[in-house]
């Protein structure tokens, strides 16, 4: 019998490879500074050999969120695919070292572990090169039904919606949750994800999703408007709770009958905004699982987001439980 879990995340398991460099080196590699591109395994290996010293740390959007839940003291688990290679072992070590349950069997054919090579210039700008690799190989067979049904919430990462087999796994996980007493949370993840999957996302939101996370640009794109109020009006009631992040403006929490505004936490210096939305979701979900008010859940989300943007990397470097206290 699985121990009761607060949140199970399902997403792309990636290792971030962070290398400090300069503008000239980025240009010499033929890259456009500040952009993100998907690369092949061969291109990833070639770039990895060229970048020099780097710091390797586990990443992936839903995994970052789950790390946030654990840092607050929540009971968390993760389902995602890595290979049985060096980067896969890094990911598995990092996530289990935080007390997070991670039992997904490693991918053993075709792909190496997914990674994102991030070139960081002195101005804090990040140029990202993502190889999805084994993370794209998640299937229904990788889902642990007992684990999913032991959780209060499952958290689905929109980035993982591209591969057909992973999309099937999303719907299967949502059905497993509905068959138990587990609520379903979705994050839209990215403007490009919305552009590719708007109709499928909408079907999932209206039929399976209890809570939706999005930033204001993603929500507007999902509901095809450039006005946030119009997007909120269109989305209200499609999920029980809608959490919309707004960068330095904080967040707005929407229910069928309420609109709650949450202020951003002050930050002395913004170093890197990568992962801010992921960690907001982690704080919010932790609060929900502990029975806190929506306003307090939002506050915990902004506490986590403020911590993550104060340093390089998308995993907490300070105990979020201590910060929240």
In short:
The protein is of the alpha/beta class and 325 residues long. The chain is built from twelve helices and 13 strands. The longest helix is centred in the middle third of the chain and has 18 residues, at 191-208.
Question: If you had to describe this structure to a student in words, what would you say it looks like?
Answer:
This protein is α/β, with parallel strands linked by helices. The protein has a single domain, classed as Ribokinase (UDP-N-acetylmuramoyl-L-alanine:D-glutamate ligase). The protein is built from twelve helices and 13 strands. An eight-stranded mixed beta sheet has the order 5-1-8-9-10-11-12-13. A hairpin with a 5-residue loop joins β11 and β12. α3 packs across α10, α7 packs across α8 and α8 packs across α9. The radius of gyration is 19 Å and the shape is globular. The model has no long low-confidence stretch (mean pLDDT 92).
């Amino acid at each position: 019998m699985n121990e009761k879990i607060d949140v199970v995340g399902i997403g792309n398991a990636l290792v971030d490879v962070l290398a400090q460099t300069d503008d000239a080196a980025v240009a010499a590699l033929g890259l456009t500074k500040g952009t993100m591109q998907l690369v092949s395994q061969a291109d990833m290996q070639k770039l990895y050999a060229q970048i020099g010293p780097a710091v390797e740390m586990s990443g992936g959007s839903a995994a970052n969120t789950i790390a946030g839940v654990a840092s607050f003291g929540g009971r968390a688990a993760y389902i995602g695919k890595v290979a049985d290679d060096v980067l896969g072992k890094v990911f598995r070590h990092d996530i289990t070292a935080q007390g997070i349950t991670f039992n997904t069997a490693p991918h053993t054919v075709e792909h190496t572990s997914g990674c994102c090579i991030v070139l960081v210039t002195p101005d804090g700008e990040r140029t990202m090169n993502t190889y999805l690799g084994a993370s794209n190989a998640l299937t229904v067979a990788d889902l642990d039904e007992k684990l999913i049904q032991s959780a209060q919430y499952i958290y689905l990462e929109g980035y993982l919606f591209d591969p057909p087999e992973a999309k099937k796994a999303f719907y299967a996980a949502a059905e497993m949750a509905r068959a138990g007493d587990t609520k379903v949370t979705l994050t839209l993840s990215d403007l490009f994800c919305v552009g590719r999957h708007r109709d499928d996302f909408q079907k999932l939101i209206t039929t399976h999703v209890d809570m939706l996370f999005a930033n204001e640009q993603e929500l507007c794109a999902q509901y095809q408007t450039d006005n946030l109020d119009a997007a909120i009006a269109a989305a209200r009631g499609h999920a029980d709770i809608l959490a919309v992040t707004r960068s330095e403006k904080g967040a707005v929490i929407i229910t069928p009958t309420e609109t709650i505004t949450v202020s951003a936490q002050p930050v002395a210096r913004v170093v890197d905004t990568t992962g801010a939305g992921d960690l907001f979701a982690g704080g919010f979900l932790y609060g929900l699982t502990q029975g806190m008010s929506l306003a307090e859940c939002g506050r915990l989300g902004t506490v986590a987001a403020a911590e993550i943007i104060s340093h390089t990397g998308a995993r907490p470097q300070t105990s979020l439980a201590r910060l929240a206290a």
